[in-house]
Write a structure and sequence with these properties.
Elements lengths: L2 E5 L4 H13 L3 E5 L7 H11 L12 H5 L9 H10 L8 E4 L2 E4 L11
Parallel strand pairs: 1-2
Antiparallel strand pairs: 1-3, 3-4
Length: about 120
Protein backbone atom coordinates (compact mmCIF):
# COMPACT_ATOMS: atom_id res chain seq x y z
CA UNK A 1 0.00 0.00 0.00
CA UNK A 2 1.17 3.45 -0.88
CA UNK A 3 1.90 6.00 1.82
CA UNK A 4 0.60 9.57 1.62
CA UNK A 5 2.25 12.27 3.71
CA UNK A 6 0.25 15.47 4.20
CA UNK A 7 2.90 18.03 5.02
CA UNK A 8 4.33 21.53 4.90
CA UNK A 9 7.75 21.55 3.18
CA UNK A 10 9.23 24.11 5.61
CA UNK A 11 8.32 21.94 8.63
CA UNK A 12 11.36 20.12 10.04
CA UNK A 13 9.23 17.28 11.46
CA UNK A 14 7.66 16.77 8.02
CA UNK A 15 11.07 16.69 6.34
CA UNK A 16 12.31 14.16 8.89
CA UNK A 17 9.26 11.90 8.39
CA UNK A 18 9.78 12.03 4.62
CA UNK A 19 13.45 11.04 5.04
CA UNK A 20 12.42 8.04 7.15
CA UNK A 21 9.88 6.90 4.57
CA UNK A 22 12.37 7.45 1.72
CA UNK A 23 14.97 5.37 3.59
CA UNK A 24 12.46 2.53 3.93
CA UNK A 25 12.19 2.30 0.13
CA UNK A 26 8.40 2.26 0.26
CA UNK A 27 6.50 4.25 -2.38
CA UNK A 28 4.92 7.43 -1.10
CA UNK A 29 3.39 10.71 -2.15
CA UNK A 30 4.04 13.93 -0.27
CA UNK A 31 1.22 16.44 -0.48
CA UNK A 32 1.82 20.06 0.49
CA UNK A 33 -1.59 20.86 1.93
CA UNK A 34 -0.93 24.57 1.51
CA UNK A 35 -0.82 24.09 -2.28
CA UNK A 36 -3.42 21.31 -2.38
CA UNK A 37 -5.76 22.23 0.48
CA UNK A 38 -7.70 19.64 2.42
CA UNK A 39 -11.36 19.26 1.62
CA UNK A 40 -13.72 18.94 4.55
CA UNK A 41 -14.41 15.30 3.65
CA UNK A 42 -10.71 14.44 3.37
CA UNK A 43 -9.73 16.07 6.67
CA UNK A 44 -12.66 14.49 8.52
CA UNK A 45 -11.81 11.11 6.95
CA UNK A 46 -8.16 11.33 7.97
CA UNK A 47 -9.09 12.25 11.53
CA UNK A 48 -11.57 9.38 11.70
CA UNK A 49 -8.98 6.86 10.45
CA UNK A 50 -6.51 8.20 13.01
CA UNK A 51 -9.04 8.06 15.84
CA UNK A 52 -8.37 11.73 16.53
CA UNK A 53 -10.59 14.76 16.96
CA UNK A 54 -9.88 18.14 15.41
CA UNK A 55 -8.88 19.35 18.87
CA UNK A 56 -6.26 16.55 19.03
CA UNK A 57 -4.45 17.97 15.99
CA UNK A 58 -4.88 21.65 16.82
CA UNK A 59 -1.67 23.69 16.83
CA UNK A 60 -2.07 25.89 19.88
CA UNK A 61 1.22 27.78 19.55
CA UNK A 62 0.37 29.41 16.23
CA UNK A 63 -0.38 33.14 16.07
CA UNK A 64 -3.71 32.47 14.33
CA UNK A 65 -4.80 30.30 17.29
CA UNK A 66 -4.21 33.26 19.60
CA UNK A 67 -5.72 35.80 17.18
CA UNK A 68 -8.92 33.75 16.92
CA UNK A 69 -9.07 33.43 20.73
CA UNK A 70 -9.54 29.65 20.48
CA UNK A 71 -8.20 29.03 23.98
CA UNK A 72 -11.12 30.99 25.42
CA UNK A 73 -13.90 29.65 23.19
CA UNK A 74 -16.00 26.52 23.09
CA UNK A 75 -15.77 25.48 19.43
CA UNK A 76 -17.57 22.48 17.95
CA UNK A 77 -15.77 19.81 15.91
CA UNK A 78 -17.30 21.11 12.66
CA UNK A 79 -16.42 24.72 13.50
CA UNK A 80 -12.84 23.71 14.29
CA UNK A 81 -12.53 21.77 11.04
CA UNK A 82 -13.88 24.78 9.11
CA UNK A 83 -11.24 26.97 10.77
CA UNK A 84 -8.51 24.43 9.94
CA UNK A 85 -9.57 24.45 6.29
CA UNK A 86 -9.44 28.25 6.26
CA UNK A 87 -6.20 28.46 8.31
CA UNK A 88 -4.06 25.36 7.65
CA UNK A 89 -1.47 26.56 10.18
CA UNK A 90 -3.90 25.29 12.82
CA UNK A 91 -3.26 21.66 11.78
CA UNK A 92 -0.52 19.58 13.42
CA UNK A 93 1.69 17.89 10.85
CA UNK A 94 2.56 15.63 9.22
CA UNK A 95 -0.48 13.41 8.88
CA UNK A 96 0.59 10.13 7.31
CA UNK A 97 -1.86 7.73 5.68
CA UNK A 98 -1.35 4.11 4.66
CA UNK A 99 -4.49 2.22 3.69
CA UNK A 100 -7.01 2.47 6.51
CA UNK A 101 -4.48 3.76 9.04
CA UNK A 102 -3.52 7.40 9.67
CA UNK A 103 -1.07 8.72 12.23
CA UNK A 104 0.06 12.13 13.33
CA UNK A 105 3.81 11.64 12.92
CA UNK A 106 4.96 13.71 15.89
CA UNK A 107 7.70 12.93 16.62
CA UNK A 108 8.70 11.97 13.08
CA UNK A 109 9.93 8.53 14.22
CA UNK A 110 6.35 7.43 14.85
CA UNK A 111 6.01 7.08 11.06
CA UNK A 112 8.00 3.85 11.41
CA UNK A 113 4.87 2.15 12.78
CA UNK A 114 3.50 2.30 9.21
CA UNK A 115 6.65 1.02 7.48
Amino acid sequence: MKITIYQKPTCSTCREAIKLVEASGQPFTAINYYEQPFTKALLKGLLKKAGLSAKDVLRTKEDIYKELGLAKKQVSEDELIALMLKYPDLIQRPLVEKGEKVILARPAETVQSLL
